[in-house]
Amino acid sequence: MTDRDDLLAEIENKAVVHGKVVLSSGQEADFYLDLRRITLDAVAAPLVGRVMLDLTEDLAYDAVGGLTLGADPVAAAMLHAAAARGRRLDAFVVRKTQKAHGLQRRVEGPEVKGRRVLVLEDTSTTGASPLTAVEALREAGAEVVAVATIVDRGAAARMAEEGLEYRSAYTLSDLGL
Ligand SMILES: O=P(O)(O)OC[C@H]1O[C@H](OP(=O)(O)OP(=O)(O)O)[C@H](O)[C@@H]1O
Ligand SMILES: O=C(O)c1cc(=O)[nH]c(=O)[nH]1
């Protein structure tokens, strides 16, 4: 079994919830993928880090993150998996709105200005969330090299429209959904 196989089994066993739900976009669906049950799980999170590093190993970037909250533990998992491989990889968090006090930053963590960054998601349906992150990162002076998600629910066309390189570790068909 590879990390990719092991993570797929973890997602199938722990994250798939059947039943009517309203999604972030307002669309209705018959199932939900609660990837937080994966990215915050002691067994699955280390797999997330390695699988997402493997998925993007041909891309040149040195910081990862995305729109809080779904992207945050994915970024942390990649940071730690990279460190275990002897690679330095920073993480960042894109706030949904700019902080009004303190340093009033929208992108938190080590400075991203002038750096090549990978935008992350746990799952993408319309792609609105990673596009919000892309916009904030470009405003902060970062160069976005690609968007990567654990499970794609249908955002590939939107990403292509925006001219963004897009990777997903799994699609719904991998999950039999
Ligand atoms: O591709 P999209 O249409 O943007 O939908 C997917 C987004 O929805 C979920 O987050 P949610 O908006 O529920 O917020 P959260 O991360 O704060 O839980 C998920 O973590 C993605 O970020
Ligand atoms: O589109 C969404 O909001 C969404 C779908 C899904 O399966 N899981 C999730 O966390 N968000």
Automatic annotation (TrEMBL):
Q: Which organism is it from?
A: Nonomuraea montanisoli
- Entry's family note: Belongs to the purine/pyrimidine phosphoribosyltransferase family. PyrE subfamily.
**Domain of life of the organism encoding this protein:** Bacteria
Q: Name one GO biological process term.
A: 'de novo' UMP biosynthetic process
Q: What this chain does, per the record?
A: Catalyzes the transfer of a ribosyl phosphate group from 5-phosphoribose 1-diphosphate to orotate, leading to the formation of orotidine monophosphate (OMP).
This protein's pathway reads: Pyrimidine metabolism; UMP biosynthesis via de novo pathway; UMP from orotate: step 1/2
Q: What is this protein called?
A: Orotate phosphoribosyltransferase
Quaternary state and interactors: Homodimer.
- Which residues make up the binding site for 5-phospho-alpha-D-ribose 1-diphosphate? R95, K96, K99, H101, E121, D122, T123, S124, T125, T126, G127, A128, S129
Residue positions binding orotate: T125, R153
Cofactor(s) the protein needs: Mg(2+)
Domain Phosphoribosyltransferase, by residue range, is: 108-159
According to the UniProt entry, its GO molecular function terms are: magnesium ion binding; orotate phosphoribosyltransferase activity
- Record's catalysed reaction(s): orotidine 5'-phosphate + diphosphate = orotate + 5-phospho-alpha-D-ribose 1-diphosphate
Q: What is its EC number?
A: 2.4.2.10
**Known NCBIfam families for this protein?**
pyrE
EC main group: transferase
